[in-house]
Every structure is written in structure tokens, then in C-alpha cells.
Amino acid sequence: MTFSASAVIFGAAILGLVWALLQFMIIARIPVVSQQIGEGSCLKMKTQNIADTTNRLVEIYTAIYEGAESFLRAEYTVCLYFIIAFSVIILLLVSWGTDWDYARGGLTMLSFILGAGTSIVSGYLGMKVAVFSNVRTTICAQKNGWTACFNVAFRAGAVMGFALCGLGIMMLYATALFYRAQYPEPKDWVYLTECLTGYGLGGSSIAMFGRVGGGIYTKAADVGADLVGKVIHGIPEDDPRNPATIADNVGDNVGDVAGMGSDLFGSFAEATCAALVIGSSIGENYGWDAMMFPLIVSAVGVGVCLVCSFLATHILPVKKEASIEIALKVQLISTTVLMIPAIYMAAVAYLPANFQLQTTVGVGVKDLTPIEPWLCVIMGAFGGLIIGLVTEYYTSHSYFPVRELANSCKTGAATNMIYGIALGYKSVIIPVIILASVVYGSFTICDMYGVALAAIGFLSNLATGLTIDVYGPVCDNAGGIAEMAELDPYVREKTDALDAAGNTTAAIGKGFAIGSAALVSLALFGAFVTRIRHASNDTVFLNGVNMLEPITFAFLIIGGMIPFAFAAMTMKSVGVAAMEMVFEVQRQFDENPHLLDANPTERPDYDACIAISTKASLREMVPPGAMVILTPLLTGIFFGVFAVSGLLTGSLIASVQLAISMSNSGGAWDNAKKYVEKQGPEHELGGKGSEIHKAAVVGDTVGDPFKDTSGPALNIVMKLMAVLSLVFADTFYHFNEGRGVFQLS
Questions:
Q1: 421: phi > 0 → left, psi -120 to 50 → alpha, else beta; which?
Q2: pLDDT in tens, 719-736
Q3: Best label site of 142, 464, 473, 678, fewest CB within 10 Å?
């Protein structure tokens, strides 16, 4: 018996949401009460006033929660104004580009609003869950053993992962069913899929603001806290005497959690929309369920991820420090392997035994069976896994590259910089070869539809990827709370061990995100070409895009420049905000020197630092976002579709290389610092407080905006430019049949 696509997709969405709720309820059962027992030296805990410690934990937790809440409220208020203004632009330009077809303009606008709203809900939900869980992870770390504290952080990630996937799948499919009432005939489903592209644009637009704004917030606080605290005054990370420490912990939630959630939601929405546009001919000839195969892949992935999650929490629970990283890595590998039979069964069940697909280039068709789409999805899934493992090799201090980087700190910060930048460049080689192989293989097998399916394959275990991504910031916050509450040092050691594994798997997650973004961007470009062909009745792009057209090649070069301009703007934004933070922290130390006493009687003004990060991020996130949104829009209007083709190609090629190198350099600098900190004073690296450690901290400080602001946001640059061009494809063609206002092509 084969269930309908609607039953499978809605069933998976409900399953994901219910599972997320169950995980949240398990976390909520843990009371916010300091524990009296623990391993190691328990004398301090026994003599400490438990009620006072609990009050301090609640005070810190509340401060982090209120800081994150106030920032997201301010950020999403700005986003709301953007959604309203841009919705009007979409309605007018898309309607005009389709000869004043207000139905298509209005439905595209509605898709945009729904995508943006879902992205906001996803980010906000992630922040809420992370903040709710971090203090409970700290409390469980006070107990004996590793299982309880690991499971809390892991389940916090699962709430975000499964809720986002369930919500995203449900909203997108419900929107498609609603639009089907407007376009009931299969021959008109091409218009349905084109209207759905607004969903991806909405998700990616909010992701841009979330990633850039959240990244500037968190790194301004992090860099400011590190420079004044660790480098100048030699106080530990997350020390309660540092005025920027609350802002730093708030940043982990608004940048690493809310930003990442919106980013990966955008990738899912865009990959699915691209596959639906390119494969719309499947629906016309073989029915609704066959056309919805890309969504069925995501639905199957939810079930696979749910089953594999039991490996970490029940079947192979974490009982010692060495098992933490293994448990997280097993999640990625097991879900990828289990997707092989799961997707095969889905392909056989929902795709015709033999079917034809119109090619993106030319007038030919491809004769396919369910095996070919299955292979494309699997190539994407395993390509993502390989890229993730390569990323781990270059960013984990368990391997040679990061240890070599740590040793370079012996001769100061300058050599650390040189080695770190070189490491990032070198780490690009294998992922790019893997991406090129996946593109070639999937395109050869299933044309551009195969590339879109490979992108969905990258994201097929999205629930697990998000679980692991959110796990890291929760553990990081738990360690900060332990330090600020002045708990037994053993608690901080446990949370640091949890966080160290999270850093490594977060780097793997960034590798997944970058690889999927590259394929999503290419798939969106293919959908753009398909839509222009449809709008022009095959008079434009019939034989593909000619890169030797003067206007195309000229904008290819301009497109390659965009990621560098974007990286420069976001890096400088972090620098400007960090300078403000440094001055504020130093001002407080100068005006109140007793803050640096071993046991100060006064508390720093944490709110002043939170205000600096909030204002700076809201101020600085607008220019880079505006550049990414306006560049393809103005290029298409004034220079035409040939210029847009070059722009998108150049942006994709440059973004993927720069994103990988920046993310991996930053991750390597971070873990090189942690490797130095793990050593004792007798070790050749000197451990904490040594000159070698100070050089490593400088590298980590430079790497912060590399790996948490500019690098990850470049994913959105290539996706957002491509999906925006896809949404406005008919509009671009309407300007002098695709030649633009200036008619240079």
C-alpha cells in the first residue's frame, strides 16, 4: 500500500512537530535548582549556599534571555518593515512582468510573506529553546556522569531541528495545495511552482538579516570581551567581572542559533522551490505526487533523523568524555547511510517507472527511471558528509593542521595569522572537487533537476544537522553560566568538553551549509534559465547561457567581486562594533578598578554592553543586506537577463571558495587556541596565560568574524541573489525582451 504524497508530507511534518514538543517537555521537567553533588572537588559546593547559587543561576539565565529577546524583537521589527515594503515591490513588479496578472503577483507576494514569517518563527523558536536549555545543561553538569548534561543539550538541538523541518515542510506544502485551487489543471502547475518561489525568497531574506545582524552582535561582544578581558587583563573567558560577558552569551543565541536556523530553513525552501520549477513538466505529464518528490525526500529525512536520534540518547548514551564527539559524528553518518534505502523506496513509490524530463538546455528530453533521481539525492547526501568530514580534519585539534597552527603561535601572532589563512585556502581544494563531482554527476544523470535533487540530498538529514548545530551554542552558554555563577571548576571542565565536541561538529555543519548553498544556488540558476525560456517561448537561453557574450562576461567579473565587497562590509562592521565594545569595557574598568578584584563586591554594567551590540548590529546589517538584494534586481532591470546570468555565476564561484576558506580559517584559529589552553604550564605551548596563548587568542579573535559572521553569511549571498533573480525573472524579461533598459545585449 502506497500512501499519497499529502499523507506522507503532512504526516512527517506533524511527526517532527510532535517529537520536538516531546523533547521540550523532557527538558522542561528539569528544575532550575543548583545541585549539591558532583565529581572531583565537592568541598566548595557543600559549603556554598545552594539557594544563593540557584538565585545567581536564575539571574544570569534571565539576563541572557532578556538580552536575546530584546535584540530579536528589535531585529524582527526592522525585518517587518522590510517585509511590508518588499511585498509591495513583488506584487507590482511580478504582476507587471506577467502582463498585469495580479493572481501570480499576489500569490508570489503571499509566498514571500509566508516564507519570511516561517523564517522568523524558526529563528525565534531556536533562540527560546536554546536559552531555556542552557541553564539546565549547566545544572545537569553538576551531577555525576555525562549522560544527563549531554542529553539536555542534544534534546535542545532536536527541538529546533525537528520543529523547523516540520514547520517548513508543512507550510510549503500547504501553500502549494492552496495554490493548486487557483491552478487546478496540470498544464498550469508551472505557474504554481513559479509563485512558490517567493517562499524561498522570504526565507532567505530574513536569513540574511539574521545571519549578518546576529553575527555582528555576537562577534562584537566576543571580540571586545576577549581583547580587554583575556589579552589585556588576563581574566578567564566568561568571567563575571567582564562587562561584555552577558552580551557574548546572548550573541551565541541570536547569531549561532537563530541565524543558523533561518539560514538552513532558507536553503531547504530554495532547494525545494528550484526542484519544483525545473521539474514542473513531471507534474504536467505524470501527476501531483510525482512532482512533489523533492518534498517527499525532506519528509522521509525527518523520519530517518528521528530514528537515528535514539542512538545518541538511548542505544549508545554518552558515558564518558571521549564518547561525546563520537556520538555526534555517528548521528551524521548513520542518517546519511539510512537515507539510501529510505529514498530508494520513496523514489520507487512516487516516481513513474519510466518518465521523461525536459532538459534545461535545448529541446530534448531525458528518459528516466526512479533510479536516476535516487542516485542524485544520494550523491548529494554523501557529498555533504565527505565535505563535513574534510572540514573536521582542517578545524579539529585532534588532527595535524590545527596542531601545526597552534605550534605556529610560538613565534607570535603574525605567524599564527599566516598559517591560519593558508590553512583556510588549502581547505578549499577537496570540498570544491567534491562539489564539482556532484554537479557533474547529477547534471549528467538528471540534467539540472538532478542538481536540485543533489542539493536536497545535502539537506535530507537537516533535522540532525540542526540538532548538532544548536547543541554547540547551548553547551557554550552552559559553560558561560557556570563561570559567571562561580560554580565548582569541575562543572566548567565538563561544559568545555561538551562545547569542544560541539565546535568540531559545528564546523562540520558549516561545511554542509556551504556545500548545500552552492548546489542550491546552481539549481536556482537553472530554474531562472528555465523560467526565462518559458517567458520568452524558447527564444532566450534555448541553447544555454553563452559566457562569451560581452555583457555576460563583464558581469561574471562583477559577480565575483560581490562576495569580497560583502565580506569587507561585514568584517568592518564587526571591527567597528568591537571597538565600541572595547572602549566601553575599558571605561568601566578605569572608572571602577575594583571590578578586577578577585572577589568584587560590585557587578559590571552588563546592559551597556548589550545595548552597544544591539545598536551596532541593527545599524550595520542594513548596507550589506541592501547590496545583495539590490544588485541582481537593478542588474536585471537595467542590463537584462544575460547580465544577471553572469552576475549569478561569478557570485556563486567566488562565494563558495571564500566561504569555505573563511569558515575553516576561523574554526582552526578557535580550536588552536583551545588546544593551547588544554596544555599545562610545563608543556612547550605553555597553556593559559602564556605568551603563546596570547598569540593564539589574537588568532581566535580575528577568526571570530571569519567563521561566525562573514563566512556563513556568504552562503546566503549566493542563494539570495539567485532566488531573487528567479522570482523576478518574468519582470526582467519584460524590459525589452530581457535586454534591460539600456539594451546593451
A1: alpha
A2: 999 999 999 999 999 999
A3: 678
Give the torsion sign (CA, 561, 563, 567, 569). Answer: positive
Q: How far apart are CA 17 and CA 15, in angstroms?
A: 6
Is position 357 within any domain?
Answer: no
Number of structural domains the chain divides into: 1
- Does residue 505 surpass a pLDDT of 90? no
Query: Does any domain span residue 252?
Result: yes
Residue 114: the pLDDT is 96
Residue 227 carries which DSSP code?
A: I
Q: Which phi and psi (to 5°) does residue 357 adopt?
A: -130, 130
Q: Is residue 244 part of a domain?
A: yes
Confidence bin at 672 (pLDDT 50/70/90): very high
Tell me: pLDDT of 492 over 90.
no
The whole-model pTM stands at 0.92
Lookup: cell for 452: 536540485
Q: How buried is 250 (Cβ within 10 angstroms: 0-12 exposed, 13-18 middle, 19+ buried)?
A: buried
Question: Which residues have CB under 8 Å from 219's CB, separation 6+?
Answer: 251, 255, 574, 577, 578, 704, 705, 708, 709
DSSP state, 708? I
**What pLDDT, on a 0 to 100 scale, did the predictor assign at position 231?**
66
Alpha-carbon distances of 628 from 81, 187, 437, 656, 659, rounded to whole Å = 18, 34, 28, 15, 15
Grid coordinates in use for 612? 552597544
Domain containing 513 equals: 5-28+51-352+366-595+604-738
pLDDT tens-digit readout, 518-539: 999 999 999 999 999 989 998 9
Check pLDDT > 90 for residue 363: no
What pLDDT band is residue 37 in, cutting at 50, 70 and 90? low
Q: Which residues of 437-466 are buried (b: 16+ CB within 10 A; e: fewer)?
A: ebbebbbebbbbbbbbbbbbbbbbbbbbbb
Within-domain flag for 331: yes
> Beta strand pairing status for 355-358 and 365-368?
antiparallel
pLDDT at 292: 96
* Res 45: pLDDT: 45
| Helix (H) / strand (E) containing 114 | helix 102-141
In three-state secondary structure terms, 744 is coil
Separation between Cα atoms, residue 695 and residue 716, nearest integer Å: 32
Cβ-based neighbours of 96, under 8 Å, separated by 6 or more: 105, 731, 734
